[in-house]
Amino acid sequence: MNMEAFSRFEADQDMGAPRRRRRILIAGIVVVLLVLVIGATMMMRGGKPAGPKGPTLPHVTVTVPGTTTVARVINATGTVAARRDMPVGIAGEGGQVVRVLVEQGTWVKRGQVLAVIDRSVQTEQASSLAAQIAVAQADAKLAQANLDRAIKLVDRGFISRADIDARTATRDQTVARVRVAQAQLAEQRARIGRLNIVSPTDGLVLTRSIEAGQIVGGSGTLFRVAANGNFEVLTRLAESDLATLKVGLPAKVTPVGQARTIDGQIWQLSPIIDPTSRQGVARVALTYDPALRPGGFAAVAITGGSTTAPLLPESAVQSDAKGNYVYLIDGADKVVRRDVKVGGVDDRGVTVTDGLTGTERVVVSAGAFLNIGDKVIPELLAKGR
């Protein structure tokens, strides 16, 4: 190496020294930052190095319901009907309708005329019978006069006792004919009276199937009257429910489409059970209310005493094709299913009539997101929530 080459080498060495110092400085700063990050991470983790993280268990709210004394309510549906539905027709031989005096929804009294049938022919017949009575009375009067004269002459020998007997018989026959004519007239007048279609009872006219000008016969229903305006709901109940009821128990009736309820009470229980459906009929008596329409449906809630049973929030009870059920948390904090039977539902919750003793830990909500066998962290529901 000559002197010129050595001089260039020394110059290159002098220029590379600052670069190396900068690199060493940057590397030192990076190392310090890494140490700070690692230290902060360990401080946040409690000074322990991070290890493999396990699965997080869900928190589930549970309740231990105990038992509560609640009114036993049987809920059902039924059909509204008149308690005594009176069919009204024509009692006579019929004829042409002259006038109809009432409409559906009209309140009527017993014996009130609902419609009038033409009676022109019957009236003329009655006039004829009245004239026959006058003729018979005249004959009877003449027969009596002849008998009286004959009696005065019998002592003089002009009239025999046999003539007296004959005249007496004639008088009796004419008197009898008067009575027959009077009876026939009374019968005709009664027939005329039967041409009026009258209400058999006080009540509310439900239906009218007759119009003026119509020809009606002696059969068929022309009006239907709810006796005294009393109604009822006929509801079919299971045999087991029917056995717990008695006449006089109160009931609440809610007609379809109505927001309010109507008070009623059981007035009759079916003495038989349908062998096919295993159901019987309970009849709930109701007083008149404009919301009641015979033939319509209504919801019925019958209060049948009280019972002691667990009371759960509605969110705790679920249902599927098998029926109603709840989720319980067992001693190992795992989810299990329990089938239940529910009773009445009110503002306080759902009454469980079978399946729970009240000491179980029942999942209050989020049951739809749980599976049988899941491990959970149960949290007891605070009182008053």
Automatic annotation (TrEMBL):
Residue limits of the CzcB-like barrel-sandwich hybrid domain?
A: 94-226
InterPro entries reported for this sequence:
Beta-barrel_RND_2 (IPR058792), BSH_CzcB-like (IPR058647), MdtA-like_C (IPR058627), RND_pump_MFP (IPR006143)
Q: Which residues form the Multidrug resistance protein MdtA-like C-terminal permuted SH3 domain?
A: 311-365
Keywords in UniProt for this one? Membrane, Transmembrane, Transmembrane helix
Residues that span the membrane, as ranges: 24-44
Reply yes or no: does the keyword Transmembrane apply. Answer: yes
**Domain CusB-like beta-barrel, residue spans:** 237-304
Q: Of which family is this protein a member?
A: Belongs to the membrane fusion protein (MFP) (TC 8.A.1) family.
Name assigned to this protein: Efflux RND transporter periplasmic adaptor subunit
**What species is this protein from?**
Sphingomonas naphthae
